[in-house]
Amino acid sequence: MPRVVTGKYKGAVLFAPKGDTTRPTTDKVKESLFSIIQTRVYDARVLDLFSGCGQIAIEAVSRGARSAVMVDKGGEQISVIKRNLEKIREDRNGPFKILKMNYDQALIRLGESGEKFDLIYMDPPYKMAEAACRRTCEIIKEYDMLTEDGILMCEHSSDLPFDTSEMALKDVRSCSYSLTVITFFSRDDREG
Questions:
Q1: C-alpha distance across the termini of the chain, in Å
Q2: Domain ranges in the chain?
Q3: What CATH number has the domain spanning 27-186?
């Protein structure tokens, strides 16, 4: 079961959807991820795509993020996210917003309403990770959804090829954790 590592919800054990349709990010990967982005989290606006149980968004808000939008198309996943928000005593009028829809529909809706994010995390099914990341980069660029120093993070498998050369955002770095890789992207109009 995923748990909140630190911050105001520290120690909360979160529910996870049953079965193998959702693969929660492991605590080891999550701790490493937040170690990398720790200076960016405070007061950040976070978007968590393919949210699953909502643990990345919940961890971010626990560590001081201003707000988080959680997106998933699965009914069971949305139910689990709502249960997890109840568990940490937050309701949907607080810093969290839930969208039950496909990731690309959610991105377009958010983009059309002028939303911008400091941190965007996506953890798609590994078999579709490259295509989902490519589409996400395109929509983010089209609607200018990343803040100037914002980053997109895509979790994917080290076993499946992942070509970043044609992405609409700039590949900054990749971090590998055994079978899991997180690739970081920034706006391609930034220097260096």
A1: 39
A2: 27-186
A3: 3.40.50.150
Long-range contact set of residues 138-141: C-beta below 8 Å, sequence gap at least 24: 138/168, 139/104, 139/107, 139/108, 139/111, 140/107, 140/111, 140/168, 140/169, 141/168, 141/169, 141/187, 141/188
Give how far Cα 133 sits from Cα of 1, 6, 107, 157, 191, Å: 26, 28, 12, 13, 22
Task: Write out the chain's pLDDT in tens, 192 residues.
Answer: 889 999 999 999 999 988 665 667 888 889 999 999 999 999 999 999 999 999 999 999 999 999 999 999 999 999 999 999 999 998 767 899 999 999 999 999 999 999 999 999 999 999 999 999 999 999 999 999 999 999 999 999 999 988 998 899 999 999 999 889 999 999 977 544
Go through the chain and tell me how many residues it has. Answer: 192
pTM above 0.90, yes or no: yes
